[in-house]
Amino acid sequence: MELFELMSERRHEQLVFWNDPDLGYRGIIAIHDTTMGPALGGTRYWNYGNDREAVIDALRLSRGMTYKAAIAGLNLGGGKSVIWGDNRKANREMIFRAHGRAVDSLHGRYITAEDVGTSPDDMEYISMETEYVVGRHGRSGDPSPITAYGVYHGIKACAAIKYGSDGLEGRHVTVQGLGHVGYYLCAHLAEEGAKLTVTDLDAERVARVAEEFGARAVGADDIYSVDADVFAPCAMGAVINDETIDMLKVDIVAGAANNQLARGLVHGPALHQRGILYAPDYVINAGGLINVYGELNDWTADRSKWKAGEIYGTLLRIFELAKSDGLGPHLAANKVAEARILEARHLQRTFRT
User: Rounded to two decimals, what is the model's pTM?
Assistant: First the structure.
């Protein structure tokens, strides 16, 4: 595996490997860019097929965090860490304390938080070994409600562009993935009167959403071909790919999952050519990052929620730029994020203590 080539491809700064075979801990920390501030990104606990899959996931996710922070106007860089293993393991303390030591070795260049397969309880274990962790109990906690709130407002922004009104009453939304974010998103959509079709690999999650919000359930592979207004991917990434893109029968793709486009330079333009409006994932799902940034800066919960609501306006500006420059929304979003990072590189302190 050509590690430096993989890092150079997307201009990553640092890749850290930690291993403790006695504890069963295998961890990777990827730091993409620290121009705007310390790299912040969650810890994903996942049973990867091999070490290359784990590395590529960490690299892709960390780059997304750089862009997410930049476009949300947060003074943070992008990072991500992954733990390779079975996230169903019950006894987790030592795994996450080992991960805390790995995080602490970077002396604040990287700050971690919750992600797929981890929880605020795991963040408590990490905090036993390092101060560079957010999303703990009694602080910002679970970022899922704020993430879902931002996605909900992002969907409304997409509706405003596509239909001339941001009202979602009677709109048909398909939701893929009913974890914390997917569940809270369904709650917002149902409250406004949207029609829901949902899927998840966990039958209990599906049954809960069907009972509470009157959603219709379909199989995991059937969700792509449902005739609807909006497709909201809220599970794993790369769900818009060569196999699924032609199956879609929607006007809008807007959801919480990271890295939704398997190949951005191919599948972004393909959505655009089909007339499907795409909300760039790292823009619409920035609520979780906003939530933990609020913890670092002592924001109130209301201020974090207000900031997540700004995703609506951010998307409208991106769609306007995309239209004026003849770009797909994903490229317009990249252009905005990269411009902010480039400008920040020219900043110099004019006063030093």
Answer: 0.86
